[in-house]
User: Fold this.
Amino acid sequence: MGTTSLSSAVSRRCEILYEVPGSEETAEEEQIPDYPVTLFFTRESYFKKVTEKSLRNSGEHKLKEGDEIIFRKDTHNAVELLVFTDRHQVYKCRAADFPDGKVSQMGEYLPTALGMDEDEKPIFLAVLENGYKGWFLFCFANGKCAKIPLSSYATKQNRRKLLKAYCDKEPLATLLFLPEETELAIRTSASRMLLVGTAQIAAKTTRDSQGVAVVTLKKNQTIASVVPADTLELANPHRYRVRSLPATGALIRAEDEGEQMSLL
Assistant:
């Protein structure tokens, strides 16, 4: 490189000063039009943002053949979104980044819209209505769970993609967004169930933490499903509630077998 001139040095100093936290990002956020919208996310990775008026006048959803809606959320246009993928990455965006659509449209294909890697697929959409408050709970097939504060995903720079969004050492059984502490019903492949308070699971600040042992499993057994306990009508919930972790849980009784416990 050649000799640095005074003018270029001054120019670089201006750029550095320009990066000092100021009002630019705040001003941009304030300019985002905010109004009620409903968000839809499908199994085949399509995303729709529909206004209240459009939703009231809508008919049936247009979907790709064999596709289905797996997530619906009534929220607002300025809300921030986190999209987790099967490559252990997360993409940060806002609902406002997407055009208002209609139910009669197929929607935006997220891998293309977010510039994902080849063959990368979204697996979970989180809507952050209260900022970076709460936790994500990553439940792995081996019985471990990683409870990660949302604050671990907050960044000072406006980065769109974060690597190592969750642990890649074990297959992911399910991912839950926890705005507050709650009780979960965990079912294993051995037809056992345990009710666990999320407050019992120690939080880890490292995004790709392997977590802590929650379920004691024998060889070839896995976590089959995890759902909020209040979505089930168990005949005797105390039978499955555990005081310490890890735990094996109790065999599921016939009267509770009918409860639907599908993967989230």
Notes: The helical segments are 6-18, 24-30, 52-56, 110-113. The CA atoms of residues 48 and 170 lie 31 Å apart. Confidence is low (pLDDT under 50) at residues 1-27, 260-264.
